[in-house]
Write a structure and sequence with these properties.
GO cellular component, one term: membrane
Strand content: under 5%
Main location: membrane
InterPro entries: TDE1/TMS (IPR005016)
Order of helices and strands: HHHHHHHHHHHHEEH
Protein name: Serine incorporator
Subcellular location: Membrane
Number of strands: 2
Largest sheet: 2 strands, antiparallel
């Protein structure tokens, strides 16, 4: 009887393990039949999903885990809990008061531990995307393979960082790396906005023209009106925001200069854009609004209390806008058909002939011993194979973009590393450095945009298309 039960249990265990493996493979791995290779964009979408998962983990670490690891846990009998408390409070000792009833110190300690919790998850994501970028350089199809193992690797990286003390890796080294990466992303984000605005502008104008042809004169006014209304809304929001910043943040010369420069450049760039042959008011409005957002981010980091009424308070508006900007970058990277074109994927396409199969789709092992690429219906997967020629060799660029987005959300969630609460700024030098880095990136971004407007006028004999 025991042998029979043992055989039944073994059989059920084998079936359950197989079912679980199949389920995980369906969710994380190949989403097609075993004879069909994964789509060329499957790795891109799963990379974006992993980034969004990391944002959720970062917020949990920041608002749940970090604040609950208190100094008095060091006296607990459980050695693991005591070690975790030491690791997460490391570098935050200056905010730990002997008087446990000191609420101000405890709040600063919670902010410090929470920020380092974000750095733990973001550091894991940054390392993951760097590793996958290197793997994609060595093997172009690596970005769409072995995703169950990749998710497990990412979770192991996060688990490992939980036991590493804050100093110096998280609160010093990684924070500065994230600041540099965040600045680079802010400049690159201009490409995202321009791509989105030009696509929307062309789409709405085309729909308006088509409506004029199909329904008669005047039928396309609703599309043109929607475009003008959107531009007007962006300009109105920008001017109102600048007016509010003049009112609240102009107590010192530095902020006043930043605000004035942004206003002048926004008006000048709009005028230059409208005088061009391919004028796009929508693009200028979006860049002006984005410049205004960067301006607000910079002036809100000024450690001078004479011109920063938000000093010492959590910048909820900045965090919300930063996370929203992160989502725009994530969605563009994951689903925009021009995402790769913006970083030049057409320059290094991979030809299927390199596999030696005479033009057939290359054989790719994803999991187990299945041999993908042996599909009989070539017409059904022609689109994926054609797109794969362009995207496989450029998947490393995708991971670099996601690494930059990781740096950006780490800074957005932590207010660029500031530790503030109740009107107290624990590290004002961080705010001053962040202010100049952000405003410097804004100036560089605006300079690049102005150059794209002026270059065709200054050098008409050159092709800038």
């Amino acid at each position: 009887m025991g042998n029979v039960l043992g055989c039944v249990a073994a059989g059920l265990g084998w079936c359950c393990c197989t079912a679980v493996g199949s389920l995980i493979s369906s969710c994380c791995g190949n989403d097609k039949n075993s004879t069909v290779p994964p789509g060329a964009t499957s790795g891109r979408k799963r990379s974006v999903l992993l980034l969004m998962i990391s944002i959720v983990f970062a917020m949990v670490f920041q608002y749940v885990v970090g604040p609950r690891l208190k100094p008095n846990y060091r006296n607990k009998i459980n050695p693991v809990l005591a070690y975790l408390a030491d690791a997460w409070i490391d570098g935050c000792e200056e905010f730990v008061d002997d008087d446990e009833s000191s609420e101000d110190y405890d709040n600063l300690r919670q902010k410090c531990s929470g920020n380092n919790g974000v750095y733990r998850v973001a550091g894991s994501a940054l390392l993951f995307f760097i590793l996958t970028a290197v793997a994609a350089c060595c093997k172009p199809t690596a970005n769409r393979e072995a995703w169950p193992a990749k998710y497990v690797l990412f979770l192991l990286l996060i688990t490992g960082t939980v036991f590493i003390p804050n100093e110096p890796l998280f609160s010093s080294i990684l924070m500065n790396i994230f600041r540099i990466g965040g600045v680079i992303f802010m400049i690159f984000n201009q490409l995202i906005l321009l791509d989105m605005t030009f696509n929307v502008n062309e789409s709405w104008v085309a729909k308006g023209d088509q409506a004029e042809l199909d329904e008669g004169e005047g039928a396309g006014k609703k599309w043109f009106g929607a475009l003008l209304a959107t531009c007007a809304l962006l300009y109105l929001a920008s001017f109102v925001a600048i007016g509010l910043m003049y009112y609240f943040f102009s107590g010192c010369g530095t902020n006043t200069a930043f605000i004035t420069i942004t206003l002048i450049v926004g008006i000048v760039s709009t005028g230059i854009q409208l005088t061009g042959e391919e004028a796009s008011l929508f693009a200028s409005a979006a860049i002006f609004a984005y410049s205004t957002f960067l301006l607000y981010t910079a002036v809100s980091k000024n450690p001078n209390d004479e011109c920063n009424p938000q000093l010492g308070e959590e910048n909820v508006l900045g965090i919300v806008l930063g996370v929203g900007l992160t989502m725009i970058g994530v969605l563009w990277t994951g689903y925009s058909k021009t995402a790769y074109r913006a970083v030049g994927e057409e320059d290094d396409a991979v030809n299927d002939d390199e596999s030696g199969d005479g033009g057939r789709a290359p054989n790719t092992r994803v999991t187990g011993e299945e041999n993908y690429g042996a599909a009989e219906d070539n017409n059904e997967d022609n689109d994926d194979n054609e797109e794969g020629k362009r995207t496989f060799s450029s998947s490393w660029k995708l991971n670099v973009i996601l690494a930059l987005i990781t740096c950006w959300y780490a800074m957005a969630l932590t207010s660029w590393g500031s530790i503030t609460d109740g009107g107290t700024v624990a590290n004002p030098q961080v705010g001053r450095t962040s202010m100049w880095m952000i405003i410097g990136s804004q100036w560089l971004m605006v300079a690049l945009y102005l150059w794209t407007l002026l270059a065709p006028k200054l050098f008409p004999d050159r092709d800038f298309s």
